[in-house]
Amino acid sequence: MMNFWQVHGLLFLFFITFFPRLTMLFAVSVPFGFLAWLGWLFVPHFLVAILATTFYWHTNPILCIIAWFVALGGTGTEVKVVTYTRPTRYLPW
Q: 9-42: b or e for each residue (b if 16 or more CB lie within 10 Å)?
């Protein structure tokens, strides 16, 4: 069985949490199929949670549960930030 801490460290955990696309692009050596590339493009936090659950559930279930909380909370927060920080046009009058 593969343990997360034998393969990765805290720095990887920080980057995969806050910068999932870049981290997966440069650090993950999982062969991606078409659906994985769609997940990488549109919902990277969910892809991280799915990969974490697939590879590390038997050895680190707490990390997998945290990954799912981050996926559910992080994706919703990103949508809120993008929606509310959109530049608005101000009329001159």
A: eeeebebbeeebeebbeeebeeeeeeebeebbee
Best CA proximity match to 74, nearest among 32, 40, 34, 46? 46
Tens digit of each residue's pLDDT (9 = 90 or more) over 29-60 = 666 778 888 888 888 889 889 988 988 999 99
pTM: 0.74
Q: Where are the domains of the chain?
A: 8-84
Task: Annotate 37-66 with DSSP letters as a single string.
Answer: HHHHHH-HHHHHHHHHHHHHTTT-HHHHHH
